[in-house]
Amino acid sequence: MAFVKNLFDKNFIEYASYVIRDRAIPDLEDGLKPVQRRIMHTLFTIDDGRMHKVASVVGDCMKFHPHGDASIGGALVVLANKGIFIARQGNFGNMYTGDEASATRYIECCVHPIAKKFLYNPDITEYIPSYDGRNKEPVVFRAKIPVVLVGGAEGIAVGMSTKILPYNFKEVIDAEIKALRGEDFEIFPDVPTGGLIDVSNYNDGNGKIITRAKFDMSDEKRIVITELPVDTTSKDLLDSIDSAYKAGKIKISSVEDFTTDHCNIEIKLPRGVYAKDVEKALYAYTACEKSISCQMLVIKDNMPVAMTATEVIKYYAKKLTAIIKDELEFERASLTEELHARTLERIFIEERIYKKIEMMKTAESVNRAVKEGFVPFKNELVHDVSDDDVDRLLKIPIRRISLFDINKNKDQVAAINARLKEIARRLKHLTDCAVEYLDSVLEEMKNYTALDPKKDPRAVDPKLMERQTTITSFSAVNAKEIVKRDIPLRYDDKGYLGTSVSAGKELIKVTPYDRILIVRKSGIWSVCDVPDKLFVDTGMWFCNYADKDVIGKILFTIIYRDPKTKFCFIKRCRIAGWIMNRDYSFVPDGMEVLHVDSRDKFKFTMRFVKKPRIKISEQEYKASSYEEKGLKANGVRLESREVESVSVEPSDNNGQGTLF
């Protein structure tokens, strides 16, 4: 058994780790999940400036992603609809209506140039073998902007989940620039579908937001929904409105959906109903308002970590300078080698070192002759001549030697030296370089937003550069606060209580959210939600709203009798608290309840069992003469005489809910 347990534990841990790191949670470094990273890597690999069938891209991606084509196709569509990663052509669905994309064989895509600018740099990216060892794929891309915020993410893993709302592209870049300059910044989510959000409990990405649709109520007889709440489509909204209407929670005449590339849902109201009367009901009972919990969970250093939006921005600001430094140092190393090659080539041809190899008989002697030929010019070289340098020089064709242009070579060397000086300067001012880079990204994005999407698939939606979601302050509408108590609660002669009881006495008006306190004839009391139809037996003593502020003020008086001795007892107590749907008893087990009352003051008469030589057969009592006790205490014995019956003076208001 121990072996089996260890086997299950090991397999579960491996599975959980795989789901967390390789499927559901995005990596902080590039903000992408593995399938998204492999899609982008595929697009970078096949990029030739033209469009590719999505089905073809999916097929190529399967070289790197060991899963089905449907999951890759779906992930590609989601990634394309974020607007900055993939240029698209064809029907990729509609984020407003929720309509799905066309089949992958009908739509086309290619990598967007802006994504290539901030995501792709193979010279400083680490690659590993793909799952089958035939290809190479990146461990992570070295992203220069917080992709995890720009694109947003959602995923459910084993024991954890992530929900990162998307942010406005321009606001993210501006925040990163401020972080580089050491300035304070504040950033909140923004979605292309607009809507209103309250971020008072957002907690920088690890709290919750309340989001609402935006209404146009300029005409008091209709409501036009012009913007959708976050994470909602017009279909979701229509379904929720239809459900609320059928349940009788909102009063509307008709609903028409004219949504295309923007939200336009028209709600017409019946006679006598106005927009201001329906507004709160729409927020309370439909998807026009909802609360979204957020958790900014990412993979950092191969481990799941919860971060804030501010921390992500600052992390990327620091990371950007490191990336730019690596790029500059790589370029400097490449240019240094290029300068070395140009210098060797000039000296090799200009000083006719190639003439010294004409009489050599072996490769070793040729190699030695070339190296010896460079000895007088050692001070002009960048570094010592290597065997690779010799091989490269020996491969120069005769035609190139005869047509060698010394002036052109000098110009090339001068350009390389100028660039090396610029690199040295930029390495001393990395922060300024990072700000300059981010400004160039914003400028390039503006150019793409100016393109016509019908003519150029690289066109970017201008909404990515302008805030669409309005940040405001409001409280969630509580359905319990706006619902009217208009449902009759009835109790019939058979002992049934509920809103579905067709015949019987109407006790009170209730709502579906009410709770009621019931006292049965046995003295057992309980609190429950308003029932449709519940058997509580005949002779129920009490039924009213189970509001703690109301019930706590009621002083219950219980008169009960011991069946064995026929002695009567009185108990006065209050109900301070309860557990839902749990039975409690006012009296000890086996006692017979004769009366329950909710009045503070009333009179009652006890009739005693008739006995010889005892003239007093009844006696009147005042309930107020007896002290209040605890709910679990026993009652006070009224008389040491056997009681036959008890009668109580009637109440004008029926005992505040008491049934006699």
Automatic annotation (TrEMBL):
Q: Which GO terms describe its biological process?
A: DNA topological change
The highest taxon in the source lineage is Bacteria
Gene Ontology CC: one annotated term: DNA topoisomerase type II (double strand cut, ATP-hydrolyzing) complex
The protein's annotated catalytic reaction(s) are: ATP-dependent breakage, passage and rejoining of double-stranded DNA
- Keyword DNA-binding on entry: yes
Q: Show the active-site residues.
A: 106
Q: Which InterPro entries match?
A: Topo_IIA-like_dom_sf (IPR013760), Topo_IIA_A/C_ab (IPR013758), Topo_IIA_A_a_sf (IPR013757), Topo_IIA_dom_A (IPR002205), Type_II_DNA_Topoisomerases (IPR050220)
Instruction: Provide the alphabetized UniProt keywords.
Output: DNA-binding, Isomerase, Topoisomerase
Q: Does the keyword DNA-binding apply?
A: yes
Molecular function via GO: ATP binding; DNA binding; DNA topoisomerase type II (double strand cut, ATP-hydrolyzing) activity
Topo IIA-type catalytic domain: which residues? 25-445
SUPFAM superfamilies with a match to the protein in the record? Type II DNA topoisomerase
Q: One matching Pfam family, short form?
A: DNA_topoisoIV
**Into which family does the record put it?**
Belongs to the type II topoisomerase GyrA/ParC subunit family.
PANTHER family, per database record:
DNA GYRASE SUBUNIT A, CHLOROPLASTIC_MITOCHONDRIAL (PTHR43493:SF5), DNA GYRASE/TOPOISOMERASE SUBUNIT A (PTHR43493)
Q: What is this protein called?
A: DNA topoisomerase IV subunit A
| The species this protein was found in | Treponema peruense
